[in-house]
Write a structure and sequence with these properties.
single chain, 305 residues, mainly alpha, two-stranded antiparallel sheet, 14 helices, 2% strand
Amino acid sequence: MNLRQNTVAKSKSSLRDGEGRLAFFAISPFYFLYLVFGIFPILYTSYMAFFAWDPLGEKVFIGLANFTNLLQDEVLWKALRNTLSIWVLGTVPQLALALYLATILNRNRLRFSNFWRAAILIPNVTSVLAIAVIFSSLYGRDFGLINYVLNIFGVDKINWMEGTLTSHIEISSMIIWRWSGYNALIYLAAMQSIPKELYESASLDGASGWQQFIYVTLPGIRNVMIFTITMSTIGGLQTFNEPYILGGVTGGNDKQFYTLAMFLYEEAFRKFQFGYGAAIGIFIFFCVIIFALINAAITSKVVKD
């Protein structure tokens, strides 16, 4: 009897080991691709940052000189200020709007709910170039709709891309338009995973709709909010497409909308200073980590309280 039990136990153990190896081989392509296209570029970029690396010339080891020169570069700090400004103007309204849209789409009595849920994703799947053309027309100095409306209230025509704040507003509005629907669907999925019993109990206790939102909905989607804020932080600190398409790679006459990603692009791929560009990439990497951790800590505390 014991021999039979031992044989059965060994068979089950062998079966589990075989399933474990099969599962490992099934997911191994992901780890291989992540190693090749994720980990290796980071390590190689870190290596490049210690060299004066000209792809058409020599590669000379200079230690921390790239980082020292970078921290003394005024263009870096101007690009950082512009990036943070665009990030704040684009991320905060975007996530607030996404949360509001998700709340509306989560209503049980909403008619044509499936249509609205699909339509809200259209800006995200539309070509960035097409969106840029539309926003350039909207914010046009002479014939733009925005200036036309402002002129009705007595505001003079604004050349939006010529000013620092105005250019940031135009770029941020484009970012809000593109990503609000995408984040709204993420919030909606999280809201629908909250048990209905919690809302019923809160309603029986006399909680209003706003109180249910504060004390039931927000705590229920806290982890998803941390995720969207973290991803928005990563995307915001890497902003490139919108300012590049709207105003060009130079970032304006006074670099008024020049971002960190544009700074990296110019140094690495226009001036061919790969080592200096790699140092900028490492700087952006640490900025992303720092701001993501700060956002996660603040969001976790605020929602929890």
